[in-house]
Every structure is written in C-alpha cells, then in structure tokens.
From TrEMBL:
Compositional bias per record (Low complexity), positions renumbered to this chain: 293-310
Source species of the chain: Prauserella isguenensis
Keywords carried by this UniProt record: DNA damage, DNA recombination, DNA repair
UniProt KW Iron keyword: no
Top-level taxon: Bacteria
Pfam (any one): RecO_N
The family this protein is said to belong to: Belongs to the RecO family.
This protein's GO CC annotations: bacterial nucleoid
One record GO biological process: double-strand break repair
Protein purpose: Involved in DNA repair and RecF pathway recombination.
Coiled-coil stretches noted in the UniProt entry, renumbered to this chain: none
Domain (DNA replication/recombination mediator RecO N-terminal): residue spans on this chain: 1-79
Entry protein name: DNA repair protein RecO
Length: 321
C-alpha cells in the first residue's frame, strides 16, 4: 500500500453503503481525486465533518485498487461554515465547485490554476467582504480562461480587430466587429463589458463600483457563455473520442449545430434551482446525499445541464436580493 498527501477542496460528497462516503476533491498536485472516506457517516467519525463540500483540507490517502482511501484529514480553511450560513454565498459556492468539477474532467490530471481559483473564490465568499455574485462571475470568467474559453471583451472574436465593438455573441466567443457581426448578437452596455474585463483581471474597485443592473447583465452573459461552452464540450465529446486524430476539438467546436438558437436572454434567469440547492449541504448524519448541486453520479460523469442550472440559480439568488 502506498501513501500520499495532498491539499484539496471538497467538490462533492456521495453516500457509499451504510457508513462511507465517496469524496471528490480538487487537489493542488494531483488534480481531481475521488476517494473513499470510511465510516464518516457515523457520529463517532474523526473526520466526517471536515470532508463536507467547500472544505479546504490536507488529506492523506492510500492508493486503493479502484478508489484511493482517505486515512487522515486536517482542516486548512473551514470555508463551509460561513458559506453555508449565507444563502447567496452558498448558491455561488455550489456553482463554483460544480463548475470546477466539470472543468477538471480528467481525474489526476494536474489543474493547479483551477485549484487556486477555487480556493481564492471560496475564501472570498467565506470572508463575506465581496458581493457573492461578483465573486462567482470573476471565478467563472477566469475558469473559462483556464479552459481556453475566455470571452473576447475588447477585440473581435473572429478577426481580432481591436474594439470597442458593440455586438456580443456567445456562440462566436464574445465581441464581434461590424464586419463579422452575425444575427442573434446582443448589445450589452459598455459598462457591462468593462465590468467583465475588470472581473477577469482582478480590478475589484471598478467591478464593485457597478450598479445592480450592470451586475445582473454581467451574470447573464457569463452564465450564457459558460453554459454554451460546457454543453458544447459535452456534445462534442463522443465525436472527439471516436475521431480524435482526424477531428480535433477545435474543429468540432467550429461548426454551429444550432444557428439562431440558444441566444442568451440577459437578465431573464428564472429557474427551479432552489429545490436543487436546498438538498445540498447538510451536516446531519442521517441527511442523505450531500452533493453540492447536480445529480449524484456513481461514475463521476458530468450531467448535462446541471452546471447551467446552478449558474442560472446564482442569477436568481442575486436578483432576489
Ligand atoms: Zn471581426
């Protein structure tokens, strides 16, 4: 049996049998790791409470035949407590860990940048100093940049001509110049694009100086951009796996399977996410699945649409305030 240690954030938790849980962590050195935590649902468990979603923990594992097994847990940052106590922060955090889970698709593929983004975002949410919806949008924009989907916010997404440009098209990848503009583009206010750029680059004073209306439109565009790319990736995946050499992912993403469809409706973000969110974190021993959003999945596979639901839900929570 071989042991290893790593620091990670708990993305989600599933029941396993009577007393065990499968913990999905995004770790600093080993990327996404799924491991069994034995006996953690018993009241006598030494580390059950430390392995709740949003926990930032230092973990010792031993390498099992199928899944690794958690043998020690120390808390690095107890983010869960303040986050779970604030509904808006909680919905933002749930969207963050679910997005991170989706983006870190391959287990044990290093994703240090993504790990640091998740820790930074959860730290900001737990600290309570910033608007949770801005924290979430900053995370999503940077996480999309990590995934190679950074929206074009100054230059034209197609020809690269320098802006400012008025038309924004999610399918095209961001702003479009007058020559490249296609039907179905939206025209966000210049302040919306400025706040998106500020969040992407960490200019908090500019981002926090924005109005509620601007923040709502930012959230709508960010959610639409993320949803488009996540769903695209999932739809493309079987195709890419079958024909990986002849048709690289970029080619698969280049064609538009539904022109005129899927246009973002900025600001209109109603969804039934509340019921999903309410079934999330619960530290009660008999409280069933503590998956922070999304469907329990024995295979760990991504479930189409769940991230989009959480992102929409973030918009809903934000507007309710
Ligand atoms: Zn252009």
């Amino acid at each position: 049996m071989s042991l290893y240690r790593d620091t990670g954030v708990v993305l989600r938790v599933h029941k396993l049998g009577e007393a065990d849980r499968i913990i999905t962590l995004l770790t600093r050195r080993n990327g996404k790791v799924r491991a069994v935590a034995k006996g953690v649902r018993r009241t006598t468990s030494r580390f059950g409470a430390r392995l709740e979603p949003f926990g930032h923990v230092d973990v010792q594992f031993y390498t099992g035949r199928t899944l690794d097994v958690v043998t020690q847990v120390q808390t690095v940052d107890a983010f869960a407590l303040p986050i779970v106590g604030d509904y808006q922060a909680y919905t933002a955090a749930a969207a963050i860990v679910e997005t991170a889970d989706r983006l870190a698709a391959e287990e044990e593929e290093p994703a240090l940048k993504l790990y640091l983004l998740v820790v930074g975002a959860l730290r900001a949410l737990a600290g309570g100093q910033r608007d949770p919806s801005l924290v979430l949008d900053a995370f999503l924009l940077r996480a999309m940049a990590f995934a190679g989907w950074e929206p074009a916010l100054t230059e034209c997404a197609r020809c690269g001509e320098r802006g400012p440009h008025a038309a924004f098209n999610v399918q095209a990848g961001g702003l479009l110049c007058p020559r490249c503009r296609i039907p179905g583009s939206v025209h966000p206010a210049p302040e919306v694009l400025a706040v998106m750029a500020a969040l992407l680059h960490g200019d908090w004073p500019l981002a926090e100086d924005s109005s509620h209306t601007v923040r709502r439109d930012v959230s709508g565009l960010v959610a639409a951009h993320l949803q488009w790319h996540l769903e695209r990736r999932l739809r493309s995946l079987p195709f890419v796996e079958r024909r990986a050499r002849e048709a690289p992912l970029t080619a698969a993403l280049g064609s538009d399977p539904h022109p005129d469809g899927g246009e973002p409706d900025i600001g209109d973000v109603d969804s039934d996410v509340d019921s999903d969110v309410d079934s999330g974190v619960d530290s009660g021993e008999d409280a069933g699945d503590t998956d922070a959003g999304g469907e329990p999945s024995a295979t760990g596979g991504a479930t189409p649409g769940t991230a989009a639901t959480s992102v929409d839900g973030h918009g809903t929570g934000q507007c309710a305030r």
